[in-house]
Design a protein that fits this description.
By secondary structure, the protein is of the alpha/beta class. Helices cover 34% and strands 14% of the residues.
Amino acid sequence: MPSQACVTDGAAVRMVIDVHCHVGYSARRVDRTMERFSFESDGAKAHPGFDSYFSPRMLGRVTWWALRRMLGVDSRLPAGDALDEAIAAANERHWANMRTVDRLVLLAFDEYHDDAGVAHGPVRRRAERGSDLYVSNTLVRDMCRKQPDRYLFGASIHPYRNEGGRDACSMLEDVVSAGAVLIKWLPIHQNMRAEDPRTIAFLRKAAKLRMPMLIHYGGEMSLGRQHMEFESPLPMLEVLRTLKREGTMPTVIVAHAATPSFPWQGRGYARAFHDALAGEFADDSIYADISALAAFGRSGWLPRLAERRELHHKLLWGTDYPIPVLLWPYLFRLGRERRRIAKIESWIDRDIALKRALGFDDCVFTQAADVLRVER
């Protein structure tokens, strides 16, 4: 991408892709009829027999209760088949009814691993460290294979994984061969230190295989914030500087533009990251997505980023579905447009309509196809 300008050229880059769309179920058991990755032969490593789960801790959070209400999912349903069927139906309402978006990158989500590389399963108590969410690569690949005209495979492999003589870099080769378009990490929840040799080795491998990384820095409101020491993107930028000098830097997309969860939290690292995107890394393959920025706590960042037009060639559109799209913070900015956008049924279409109305350049919505190397 050229610096300081949005340029789109060719049919592929006109495709509109949501680079950040979550899928997950409360207790989805392993389906033996699916073609399975060898490192997921029995689903979750720390909770065998499941292709997806939510932790009791997550199910007890007020944010989860509120989200279920907004999705129209009965908040009284316990974890299990009935809840998962209701979640699938809610997803289908929003995904099948989207009219302005070509593809969703559905994201797998690996389990928490401690520093020794041991996976930890679903968490019950607030102070405990473990996984609030797990979604297997096998499940997401199967969903994407069934509807390739709608979904793209977003994989997730913890860099500390090492089992059966295979490390995470070896597993990365498997998901690349299976058509993954990116790898998703959330360091403050999953425990991923930027400077760890295993993390750096994975990034080098991703660069070699031309696999983009979608890494969440900044705040987090849905899952447990278990490692807030990894909130800032600046240590990762230092690692990327080293890899750039080596010629082994992968494409990196920083989720939510590394913004904090609430306006009263410090903004220093986010501003430093944005300045680095516009300056030092203006011509490099480092980007930020603008997902979840219409959510409570982050809504002020959207107009700020919309006004920084020198950053638009570094921004990719995403929703962070099922995070809801709030319109009330933009009442005066949207004017009459607010009513039109509020009538849009699909949260996917509503999110993109809001961000277009706030003034983001068209390339923010179309350049993901080029970054992810996706063709129609």
